[in-house]
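Table 4 source record.
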Amino acid sequence: MASTVHTSAFWVLGSCSGSRFALAIVLAVSLGGCSHETAEEVESETVVPVTTMTAATGTIRAVLNVTGTVTAAPGADQLVVAPQPSRIAEITKAEGDLVKAGDLLVRFEIPALAVDVATRRGELARAKARLDTARAAQTRAHDLFDRGIAPRKDVEEADRELADAQAGIIETEATVAASETAANQSTVRARFAGVVAKRMHNPGDVADATASDPVMRVVDPRRLEVTASVPIADIARVAVGAEAHMANPAGGSELALKVVSRPAAVDPGTAAVPLRLMFVSPATVPIGAPVQVNINAEEHRDVVLVPAQAVVREGNETAVFIANGDKAERRAVTLGLADEKQAEVTSGVKAGETVIVTGQAGLPDGAKITASSSESKP
């Protein structure tokens, strides 16, 4: 019964004057279907704003960032060590005191050296007396031989004795000089003008005759340098005379340095080697201070350069986005040298092409863009 009623109602709608209402329903259904298709076909595409710069040809230099230590230059560091285990009799300077060349620094008490000097001088006196006796004997022997009283044999013996006495003088004088040199080591004087960097002992202490037990260290603060630790793989990239710079531990502007020497040989299995750099101008930096040094390495001229911020790294691949009209074009690139401001592109981008420097993060290849140019240059 319900089915019959429904069918009747349908036919009533289709056949009576209410057909105008039925047409309205059909139109509504048709319009609804058309409206649904339009929503699927029309898609809104986002335009990404980016900033661009032009890839240019230029010069870039590699810079090695290494660690180093401030040290005294060769000849500007005096380490006072006892000549033999002995007691310290006198120390004239304190840590931080200025010294002049020739100033007394330390006097050691070494009785054995004084006794040895006295013994050697006694031997020299006896050798001189023997020489005087030999000369007198030679004169007498020659005189007697000339008068026919003494045989030639006596003359030859006198000559031989004089020669031996003269040789003895030379030998004894050498031993005296050596003994006095050793005795002089008990008194240590400053070899140059400088400052006492460290004092490790006091008067009355007993010091060993080893570098591991020094008494005092004097340095010339006007002759400092930096010993940098450079990986062996990079040492060939640095030339003697190369410029370098480092932050000033005391603040202010950076300090300029210059490479003065590279090692000629290294120990097997060594990962890094020392590189010596001198300060271009005198610097007041504490000896032993650890520092970070930037050393100029190789330079590439007439290469394609892009801003460092234009480079995108995705996994093992490096890319740069090019602004190609109103679309972004992703280019895989190969890089050469790079620093904090720019990067050398050896393949993938040509000079004159417009690269995207901001807004490229997460940008798909072919995305629509609106570009504005940056005033700065790579």
